[in-house]
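Q:
Just now I want nothing more than another pair of eyes on a protein record. Here is the record:
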Amino acid sequence: MTPKRFWGSTALIAALLLAVALAAGAAAQKKPATAEELLGAALHQEEVEGNLERAIATYKKVLAEAGGNRALAARALVQIGRCYEKLGSAEARKAYERVVRDFADQAEPVRVARERIAALQPGGANAGRTEMKLRRVWTAGAVDFGRVSSDGRFLSFTDWENDDSLTIHDFATGENRQLTGKGTTAASSPSAGGSVLSPDSKQIAYNCYNKDGFQELRIIGLDGSEPRLLYSNREQARRIEPAAWSPDGSHILAGFQKKDDTWEMTLVAVGDGSVRPLKPLDRGAARRARFSPDGRYIAYDTRGDIFLLETKTGRELPLVQHPANDYLLDWTPDGRILFSSDRSGTRDAWLIVVVDGKPMGLPELVKKGAGAWTLGFTRAGAYYYGSQGSAGDVYTAEIDLASGRLISPPQPASRRWVGISGIPDWSPDGKFLAYRGVGGIVIRSAETGEERELKPKLRSGRGYTDLRWAPDDKFLIMPGIDNEGRRGLMHVDVQTGDATLLVPLLERDTLVPRFDCSPDGKTIFYVSRDAAEGYDFTLFAWDLQTRRETALVRRRSLGPFSVSPDGRWLLLAAGEGEEQTQSQVLFIMPAAGGDLRELVRIDVEESNWMVTPLWTPDGRSVIFVKGARGKPSRQGTQLWRIPAEGGEPTRLDVTIDKLWRLRLHPDGRRIAFETYGIKSELWVLENFLPSLKSAAKQ
C-alpha cells in the first residue's frame, strides 16, 4: 500500500468492490451514474480488477461529467496518469502535465503530478525502467501470507477461514491446496501460523500452537506428508516466528519469544532441531530477518534502522542508519537490499548496494509506495508483496430486549458507502449516528436519514479505527495525530472538524487503544500496552481536569470494555489461560478502581474478542456476544443478555453474521453494528530493479 495518498489507502480503495457492485447497480436503474459514482467504479476497475484500459476509459468519463468539480477532475486525471504509467505508456506524462497546466489550484494533485513527472524524466527514479509492471495476481479472504517460492510457482499461507490450515496457492493452476487441517493426512496438526518455503520449494517451515497453548516449529512437505516436529520448548520459546531458510536449506532463521517476553533471533538446524541463539531482537523484526543469497549475512531491522549480522562470527554491521524510519523488505537475487523508508515523506521502496557487508553509495528510490507485507523475490527478480484491508458495512435494526427478538430486519445505514463503512456510534441524545466513510466521518440523522461528511482536521486519523460521541453531543472522540504531530485521543468538533488533543498517548502505546468516556465527560478510560511488572495491557483512567493518569487494572490479556450509564461501573472482558486456550471472562468493577467481580465466563470456542460488551440503557443488564473466536468472517454470531447483578445468561433471538462492532441506541430499541470481512491481495512488481552496474555508481 502507499500511505498518505491524498485520496486514501489502497485497502480502502479495494473495499469499494462491494460499493460498486451493490450501490452502482441499484442506482443505474433510477438515474445515470454521477461523476462520484463513476470514480468509484474506475478505482474498482484499476485497483481490484486490474483492468487498466477499462479504468482509463471510466476515468475519462469522470472528467467529462465532473463539471465544476475541479478537485474530482484533477483526481481522475492523476489516476489516468497512474494507469498509463503501470502500462508503460508515454501518455502518463501527458496526463500529469495536464494536471499541472490546467489544475494549478488543486495543490495535492499538482504535487503528485510534479513528483511523477520528475520520476519519469531522464535520470529520474524510473529512468530506464519504463516497462516496470505492477500486477495483482491473487485475491483472497482472511489469510496470513507466508512466502513465495524462488521459482515463483507457489505461495504459502494460512487460511484463517478454513480451520487455520496451512495452504499452498499454485500460480500456474490458480488452485489452493490444503496441507494441514481437516481432510488432509495431517488432520491432527494444530492451527498453523507463519510459514516460509524452503529454497528448493519442497518443504515449508511453519509455527503452530499445540494443545498446551505455546508455539512449536514444524516442517511439512509440499506433497502433504505428515509434518515433522522440529522444535518445541516452552521455557525457551513461548512463541516462534519463522523468518527464512538458509540458502543451503540447513537452517531456519526464527524469532523466539522467551518466557520473560523478550525476543531473540535464533538459528534452528533442520536436521536435528538444535538451536543457536544469535542476538536479542525487537518483536516486529523477528519475522523480517533475511539471509543474503550467499548465506554470509543476515539482514534485519530494529528501531527504524537496518543492520547486518555476519552469520559465522555474529559480528554486527550497520547498513542503513537515518533519522527516517527504515524497514527491511528483502535481499534482491543479486545481493542488494530492498527496504522501505519514509524519508521522502511517504513510505517508499529504496535500494542499496551491499559489498562485503558494507553499503556502497547512497540508497536509490526505486518505487513510490512500499508493499505492506513483503513475500520475497523470485530468482528472476520479481518482487511479491501482499496487502490486506477491511470491507465492512454499517447496519441498523430495531430490537425488543424484553422478548429478545428483532422487530425489524437489519438495513444498511447508507446506500452510498456500501462495503466501506464502519465504526458506528449513536449520539447520546439519540439523534445522530456517526460512522466511518471514505476518508472521513459520516454524520447521519437517525430520523430523516440525511447524511453529511465530516473531515476531521488531523494529520492522520490512523484510518479512523474507532470513535465515540462525547457526552455533550457536540464532539467526537477518536484516535489520531494532530497537525503538530502529537499522538493521542482527539476532541473533534462535529460541525467544523476542528481537532484538539484530549489525551496524549505515550511511546508505550504501540496500538491504538480501546477507549470510552464517562457520562459526565470528566474521565476518559482506555486500554493500552504496558510492560510494567510483566503485564501486557493496562486499563487507565485519565482525569480531564487534573490531566492525571491512573492505572486501574493490569492483566496479561485485557479486551474491550464499556462504562455503565451512571458512570459508576466498568464492564470489561479479559482472558484467562494460555493465549490459544483462553476463556473470555466478563468482569464488573468500580469505575474508580477496585476488585473485579466475575459476571460470566465464555468458553474458548465461543469467545469473540471483537465485540464490546454493552450495558442496557437502564444499567440493569449486559449484552454480550458469543461467536467463533478471532474469526470475523465466520457465521452465526449470537447476542446474549445477563443481569448486571449476575445470574443465568439468556440467548436473544438475534444472530448476526460477521459481526464486528455493536452499539445500542439510548432508547434501547435500536442497534447499529458493523459487519466485517478481510480482503487480501497479492501483487507482483516486475522489471523495476536498476542494473547493478548503474546502482554501484551512485
About this structure: The chain has three domains: 10-120, 142-287, 392-676. Residues 106 and 390 are 30 Å apart (CA to CA).
